[in-house]
Amino acid sequence: MTKNISVDTTKEAKKTPDKAQPWKELGLKQEEYDRIKVILGRRPTSAELAMYSVMWSEHCSYKSSKIYLRQFGEKVTPEMRKNLMVGMGENAGVVDIGEGWAVTFKVESHNHPSYIEPFQGAATGVGGIVRDILTMGARPIAVMDQLRFGAVDHPDTARVVNGVVSGISFYGNCLGLPNIGGETVFDKVYQGNPLVNALSVGALRHEDLKLAKATNPGDLVILFGARTGADGIGGVSVLASETFDSEGPSRRPAVQVGDPFAEKVLIECSLELYAAQVVAGIQDLGGAGLSCATSELASNGNAGMKVQLKNVLLRDESLTPEEILMSESQERMMAIVPKKDLKAFTDIVNKHEVEFSVMGEVIKEPRLYIMWGDEEIVNVPPRTVAHDGPVYERPVAYPSWIDSLKANSASTLPRETSEEALKSQINQVVSSPNQASKSWITDQYDHYVGGNTALAMPDDSGMVRVSEETGLGVAIATDANGKYCQLDPYTGTQLALAESYRNVAASGASPMAVTNCLNFGSPENPEVMWQFKEATAGLADGCLELGIPVTGGNVSFYNQTGDVAIYPTPVVGVLGVIDDVARRIPSGWQDEGNNIYLLGITRDELDGSAWAETIHDHLGGKPPVVDLKQEKALAELMHGANLQGLIASAHDLSEGGLVQAIIESSLRFGVGARIWLNEILERDNVDLTAALFSESQARMLISVGREDDVKFVGLCEARGIPVLRIGVTDSTKELIIQDVAGWTIEELAREHEGTIPELFG
Amino acid sequence: MRIGVVTFPGTLDDRDAQRAVRLAGATPVSLWHAEKDLHDVDAVILPGGFSFGDYLRCGAIAAQALVMETIIDAAYGGLPVLGICNGFQILVEANLLPGGLIRNEHQHFICRDQKLIVENVDTAWTNQFTLGQEITIPLKNGEGGYIAKEETLKKLEGEGLIAFRYSEVNPNGSFNNIAGLRNSKGNVVGLMPHPEHAVEPGFGPDTDKAMRSGVDGLNFFTSVLNWMVKA
Amino acid sequence: MPKIIVEVMPKADLLDPAGKAVANSLQRQGHSAITNVRIGKRIELHYEEAPTPKQIEDAKEIAAYFLSNGVIEDVVSVSVEEL
Amino acid sequence: MPKIIVEVMPKADLLDPAGKAVANSLQRQGHSAITNVRIGKRIELHYEEAPTPKQIEDAKEIAAYFLSNGVIEDVVSVSVEEL
Ligand SMILES: Nc1ncnc2c1ncn2[C@@H]1O[C@H](COP(=O)(O)OP(=O)(O)O)[C@@H](O)[C@H]1O
Ligand SMILES: [Mg+2]
Q1: Those residues with Cβ within 8 angstroms of residue B179's Cβ, 6 or more apart along the chain or in another chain
Q2: Active-site residues of B: which are they?
């Protein structure tokens, strides 16, 4: 079967310095190609060209974003670093959560593949992020998904929604990882470019931390897991078609097919290898496949590597060396194993029936040699591939359109005052696709598996127990509001941070660390680059003010349909810690006769709101004011009050405003209430529309048992948190907002829960 | 008392089943699919998951595993065996229980808190319930639609071999609302919903009393202890 | 490469929800001539060399006990294909 | 009843996880002559009457855009079966 493949060797490259090479087709710029030649002192071989082109791509090298991402490491205090065991730059950040436990978490994009093939794209997105977590030495314990789709009434949206949701469901469920939350947003700007971000979190004992490093000369380089095939090679076929005669495959598939079963086996196998202490370094194979794994392991360890590419186990014998180096076949890992441990390593992988091959050895000289039989096809300094790629300071330009967009405030839109009209607007908002219940999606995800899920959808954050002995656990929430970011990316990104921070606090955990996935348009567009610059500055400044560090993240550029970029969509994830998940706080009312309090001040802030979008199809003005000091005070209040057991439920206010939070709190456990708004109108000097729909920040809806009222109000006052009693829960199975509207719970449930199944079910 | 919990490649709920065994007061013993030895356990649980990826048909490849040879023999000899979700599918593929489980009628994976009616209490795994009791435990599957030929259904109904029926909502199109079955001896029980996810307050289904406080699943595991004491 | 093709279909008198869903969708798309749809499997077994009569017998047996579940499915064909 | 049979297989270049799992199991069961397995779909479209040439053309189109996913699968055959 094996074909005789003619390969381009380093010897050949020296002999034919002027051979034309398809660097342009591979996405390299002239300067970049020239730089490779300077680094090597000759033209690259086609294998080297393949490696550099993919490792220097935007996706792998962060060449346009690097100069901005630096501030996440710079705008930090020693206090913020205190609990950080591994910061940015590794596969995922690692945070010390106490009791000898650490957690690692990260969110990553898989946007473009998910448009081409929604099911496999989303599935392999989950697979990829879970391997990143596994690579740190952790057992993955949960996943989340952040989704942005096109308009609900566009004919292509159902294809993408159904494919993506079933892909995530298929892969995540089959891995045995509870899905504990996420986001779902519909907007026409995502029509030709949906966003599929996936987050995973893992837990490990401090001493089990693993790094992607090859340091000790003589250690073995082992590839294990699935065989390497032609998946996800796409563009590199250019090289293949050059080296192939006419009968060779002309076009390799650009998509990857995921096998969650293989990944589940890989997880158990890897954890057993870690426990047996037979791996000195480990790296998952994701984007850029072997090119990435070999060069990064060597570069991280300040060492080199000599490997035999013919030792790679193939699914398809016709693959060329370039294709093998680039293949993005899923469910593979690379381990660095001391020679003395090979036997133990072999026993464990055999037990799991996982295939492996020894590819070569770590060497002292910081050089990466890749052989194809007797021929040398790669001979490069690994740092130049993995870490010293190009860095660009791309031009930025203040968007020409933004001032007029900001001037077009929603404050001038007509407002209703009659009860009938207000009720109708409320119904429209809570049943709009973006505000409606997402249970049709989340019911397709297993949130029980593992038996440690303390909170999941539809609560404000997902929470999982880490220690079964003590109940120590973590909570995670993620947020992004593209509309706010379109109006003002600096503020919009801080609002995303503020909301996920607030969500974590609302569930009873103390916010501790941040991850992010920055989804933007083309970095070659100066206006997009300006948005990116503002967003990253907003996030870094916000984290500094809140005192929680960014531990890692991901950048996804080129999200656009034609020339039209998506709204800047920086997904911000906040992780919090809770010493005993038994103290978690539900987002809905559980008991009758509890008092309902609104914390925080309501301003007339309807620009970019769900109300403006749903009722008036309007986007313009300035996003709500950010007040991170107040957010912090709120989080501290929640922590203190929860320790005293004063809080029966808490729900943060965000999109849709107070009325959305009231309705969700009622529907969570089907408990009714009577609410009055007159004191808000008086104290905050706002009208009914603002009281109901304003998206002012730093607010929460809390329910408190009668016996704890005095204590709770006292705590709020002591901390300077504005507090108003606005209602009381009851046993009527009705929700009444005085002078505005009333519903039976059943009627409300129909409004809130009917929309999405009707569209996609 | 020692209760074996089998792990196949792709099994997911094995650690949950072990926890349930512990909470019921017995000792969980981990069994590996590639070993025939049952390590002297007094009962066996085939837990949920996607054994061998659930490729071909759910449970089909697992039914061919080495450990199943011993379990099938032991089950005919009266060893208590509980198949949960994927474990139920394996029991069906191994012909220890009749019928088949196919893709849910609505074509989606579904995860929900499911009400069940206990239809039979004369088994190793249900004797701590009362007949007709309504319980709530999580359900999560993509291929949980129970089907069987007309004559099989008649036999199941006639001989009282239905252990559980879905109540209020039939979540997957199962014939006769069948959620779980027993064999004629009562030592083998299989069901699609997950009792092992409703054993610990704080991590089970919601109840009227409090969020996630449901522990209706615990009786499955105490039942088998009771059965063995009597046996 | 020589192959044996095994074809398996859900039993005619049993429910096939996937087939039903596809049929409904085709109806909605206006293909009213299609009255029903059933979805089964086409399984290729690959061999290095042309399968021997014994191997073909084996394949039939594998089809019956493993590749199909006789309670809910029928093997509709087992055929050798050589290329 | 007249039928059109559509056969769909995963693209040869791409991973077929189900086929791989079945192949491994057959290996474990001792069927070492079977080197690989691939699993696709066999879809029956049922008609009241023998499909017209136009309906056969339609079926081919349905096979290509609806019954298969061109990104990861190939339609390997569309054939009429009359019984
Ligand atoms: N795609 C998804 N995957 C998982 N959970 C989701 C998804 N979309 C929404 N959710 C969950 O639904 C609930 C409501 O979502 P949302 O209204 O966006 O919450 P919030 O306003 O608190 O950010 C949350 O618990 C969220 O985690
Ligand atoms: Mg929230």
Answers
A1: B114, B116, B146, B163, B164, B165, B166, B191, B192, B193
A2: 85, 194, 196
